[in-house]
Amino acid sequence: MAFEGIGGGRRLVIIAATVVALLAVMMVIGQESGKAAAMRNVARLDADLGFSVMGLPQPARALVAILALDCDLVSKPPGRIETLACLRSAASSRAADDQMLPNAAGRLESVLSIKTDRK
Predict the structure, then answer these.
(1) Are 41 and 76 in contact (CB under 8 A)?
(2) How many angstroms separate the Cα of 93 from the Cα of each of 39, 42, 78, 85?
(3) Where are the domains of the chain?
């Protein structure tokens, strides 16, 4: 074995350092992959909804993002009708007094009506 001449303590340090380095590389790759996926999702929402989601105020952006995750938007076919149906179904499945997204359905419709009126 390559580590036969090295003491047991040093050997463990080298193995631990190698594992930590590999984990760090995997985290960076995962972050970059996640950022790329997020950018694709934002581009899809922008195209399907007809306005920039990133231009929304932070609470409205968070609402749309959470609903898109809830309805698994990435697995749905692209298109305005499909995206709206997905978001609305996720919003309507939440209780009106949901702690995380109170009145999600009403808030989503408010965001959609304001943004579509300005088009």
Answers:
(1) no
(2) 26, 23, 21, 12
(3) 8-117
Task: Give pLDDT < 50 ranges for the chain.
Answer: 118-119
Taking only the tens place, the pLDDT of each residue in 82-99 is 999 999 999 999 887 788
Task: Report d(CA 17, CA 38) in Å as an integer.
Answer: 31
Predicted TM-score (pTM) above 0.70: no
- Helix 80-92 with 8-49: angle, nearest 10 deg: 110
Distances (CA, A) of 112 to 8, 24, 29, 33: 64, 41, 35, 29
Helices (H), the chain: 8-49, 58-70, 80-92, 104-117
